[in-house]
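Pair request: fold both.
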Amino acid sequence: MNIAVGIVFIVLGILLIIFPKQMMKFNLRYIFRNKKHTSLHVARAIFGGVILIIFGIIFIFNPNIFEIIINRD
């Protein structure tokens, strides 16, 4: 299960890095109806893609990550 989640995160992260404007239009249609994207919005989308890729790699290589987070003894 965690491997599938990791793969989904990595794919979404790659899409955010490669197509930041198109992904923002898809996710935030109600905000960008008649507005143009600023460089800050594009940079935030790319940063979010990098974070998703990192989380995806963590999910793939550490399959019991949920147990580690929940059981912090």
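--- second member of the pair ---
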Amino acid sequence: MKFIFATTEAQKVPATITSRCQRFDLRRIPAHLIKKHLLFIAENEKIQLDGEAADAIARGAEGGLRDAESMLDQMVAFCGNHIRAGDVMDVFGFTPHEVVVSLADSLFVGNASAALDTVAAQSNLGKDLSRLTAELVSHLRDLLVSQATGGECAISQGKLLDLVDHFSAAESAMKWVADKKLQLDVAVIKALHLLDETSLTDVIETLTGLCNGEPPAPRSDRPAKVAPIAATPPPAPAPVLPPSPAPESAPAAPVVSAPAEPQPVLEIPKPSPTVVRTPPPVVPKATPAPTPEPAAPVDAALCWERIAAEFSKNSVIRFGWFREGVFDRLEGGRLIVRFPAVLQEASSSMFMEKGIKDIEARLLQDLCQPTKIVFEFDEALHTAAPEPEPEPEAPKVAEPVVEAPPMDPMEEFLHDPLIEKALEIFKGTLQTQKT
């Protein structure tokens, strides 16, 4: 006899039971395998199942083959033996992938009207807005993975991460609200504000450029919608008045003129034509362009020292540790630089992706060939020890001041200028009485 115990919380099963059981972890079935099995069932049951319809059922089953077969039975009950992708979308409330892509593109270009219209249209068609949000998160995740592996996207990787976190939280919140359309509308508007925010990396780059005297880069604005200009009607033609009849004048008397005398005609001889011959144009000979001299080879070690000094000067916080790098070799289109092992954590910062691209662009400019930068970390290398601080100077010993012996008060009194002046006036002397 065999007992089968199924649970979704295997970590709560006591060790006394798990030690006597064979454990089999069941995982979700990939969508392409479910699609293949559905097409196999449809072929045996003489059902015309379109490939796109099978793909929609497989994605909606979320890895469960039993759920996919139940959905196929429902479609046969509703649509008969011919099942199309549109029928699956209508019955289960799925959203076509083209609508999800259109909603994401509207967010990227900042078109709030188009994004909200898409949400309203799906709500009016009776689509499940929670599933629409989940499919939008899945689409953003695919764009994020594509960009991380070398693909291109309309927005930066940091903005994609913010959108994935934002719509994932919105999807979780929609499970507990009654008006899901309101929740999704608010999430779309907030996502547009997130895309307009400036990241910390942009602020640091702008401040670094200002410290180096570079003007700040202009912020790229979203394409604004231009209102259609109404065509102004052409001005009405001015009415043409009929010409007024000329007033009748009295008949003039006939004028009799005397015959004019004939004037003598002078004949002027015509000048003979002069033929002017122009010399043929002189075409200057084209001088061959001077052949450029081959550029002198650049020392790779010196090139790295310049790059390390420049990058650490521009931003000590991000690239100050470049000064500890030691050029090792240049081989196979790779420039290898060795660092102390304690600096390996600094190489995994969020700024290194852009820093690596800037360094390779600089290497292409200096070495005239595409070169990749490679960092190696060696335990044998040590960071430069800080310079010892100068020892404080010993305080100088002040020389002892020799005080003069105190003066006798009587002597000081006798040498007083006023006393001497009085003695001179009265011609007298002072006498002291000894006791």
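Observation on the second member. The chain has 16 helices and five strands.
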